[in-house]
Amino acid sequence: MMPRMNFKPLGDSALLISFGEVIDEEINDRVHALAGAIEKANFGWLVEVVPAYSSLAVIYDPALTDFDGVRQAIERLEFSAERFEGKLAEIPVLYGGEYGPDLEFVAQYNGLTPEEVIEIHSRPIYRVYFLGFLPGFAYLGGMDGRIATPRLERPRLKVPAGSVGIAGGQTGVYPIESPGGWRIIGRTPLRLFDPEKEPPTLLQPGDRVRFVPIDEGKFNELYAAEWGREDD
After folding, report:
1. Quick one: which H or E segment has residue 166?
2. If pLDDT is split at 50, 70 and 90, which confidence band does 232 have?
3. Is the pTM of this model over 0.70?
4. Longest CA–CA separation in the chain, Å
């Protein structure tokens, strides 16, 4: 049975609608269906809708409405949570070495070899649940718990674009260079965020992702084609 919507205020200009506390594809379908229904309704007070795993934040103009007004308007909406599924994207990854400095730690932490970590990480087809943290950063569901690893105690000041990381039971790819505390196990030569393109993000909610291990030669070839220069 699908959980009911639970409304909670977030300050005086936003509210959170929650469908539970679990990572579940059917619940995420419902989150995105509701987000679409809210955007389609084109409420005059709506500023932004931000979906997550099992909840979404609704940001509104407090000069035009309040928490109760937003809640009542959303409760009146009719929407159906159809299967929310996009394209299948293959993400080539060079695991380990200078591109995956935490691969050895992830292996040791879980009592595995680096090769086993690579095999386990690249086996599933992941789902993009939502985008956040950075432009184009896709939160992926479906990682095998055997390679779950805690974040770094001290985040790195600079994580290169394309870095593939693990944080707890999640995995994801840094679309741009930024600070970050995820355990980096590899890097993709693909450009996941390009402001010159429409849409600017390679991955969208509902897409499926498969990681494909590659060697350094293939990485350099793809990197040069994608970025227009050799990796440094």
Report:
1. strand 163-167
2. very low
3. yes
4. 58
